[in-house]
Amino acid sequence: MKSIAVERLVKEFSLEVLAGGDQLDRPITKLKTHRPGLEFIGYFAFFPMERVQILGKKEITYLHQLSEEEREKRIGNIVNYHPPCFIVTGDQEGLTYLKKFCAREGIPLLRTTETTTDFIAKADGYLTKTLAPEIALHGVCLNVFGIGILLRGESGIGKSEIAHTLIGRGHRLVADDIVVLKKLSHKTILGTHDENNKEFLALRSVGLLNVVRVYGRKSFQDETRIALDINLTKWEKNTLNNELELKTKFKEYMDVSIPHIEIQLQPGRDVAGLIEAAANNWYLQQQGYSAAEDFLHRIESTEK
Predict the structure, then answer these.
(1) Which domains, ranges and CATH numbers included, belong to the chain?
(2) For 160-208, how does the pLDDT look when each residue is reduced to its tens digit (9 = 90+)?
(3) Closest among 161, 276, 249, 242 to 209, alpha carbons compared
(4) Is the pTM of this model over 0.85?
(5) Within 10 Å of residue 286's Cβ, how many Cβ atoms?
(6) What's the CA gap between 299 and 293, in Å, rounded?
(7) Are the C-beta atoms of residues 31 and 127 closer than 8 Å to each other?
């Protein structure tokens, strides 16, 4: 199970540490934050205690209105579950009682000036990406016409050279050689680099290029949602028959199905142009248009 320390959250969002500063190494393992509500009235049947607990204006105002005895009882019940940390939003004051409990139990109490809605959206997005299940594979990741493409093929087949051609046409590199895939949901795979290969493209006979230094900032982006999986293979005679494939083929990564095509390589083929065509065709398919279905419809209309 992946985890990050509370300290990374503190640094990422410039959080103020109010208590438990010596416990910032506590692990966070869950993708989403949680705002305790029913827990304050003693209902803990479904309390996600492993999540970061967010205390917004509603929660803090409620606690302020309780008697000291009742407040300590309600807070004590939640603190006893030892969540990774508490984060108070909106730069709210009057948190002496929270500081006392958190300091005693060794739970970080943090504060942000951001509103509850804004902070939860940012924190959930950050945790989802950071803690998402991931795999690393050999390939190239690109963004072509705003569409994320995973380019695969055996070593030396020319993936990086094709990526270089696409960059020259105005498209963007995400990762070369090692591509990190992160599963954000049952439908979404995010492609990114492994930090070490960020901005670098390796070309045989030329060497390592920093594409940002050579081609400018527009030649690179940090991550992209993978929409199309393309496998580059060696040319096999008499295997390309231009069949009208009405059914999309798929490749699975961490149980997420990604549309898949295969492109065979041969001297003289404009493979970069074929990849651009595949990206545009995928986009049209998302709009509900299928060239193959349109063509067959025309044939059927003519026969009538």
Answers:
(1) 4-130 (3.40.1390.20), 133-296 (3.40.50.300)
(2) 999 999 999 999 999 999 999 999 999 999 999 999 999 999 998 899 9
(3) 161
(4) no
(5) 11
(6) 10
(7) yes
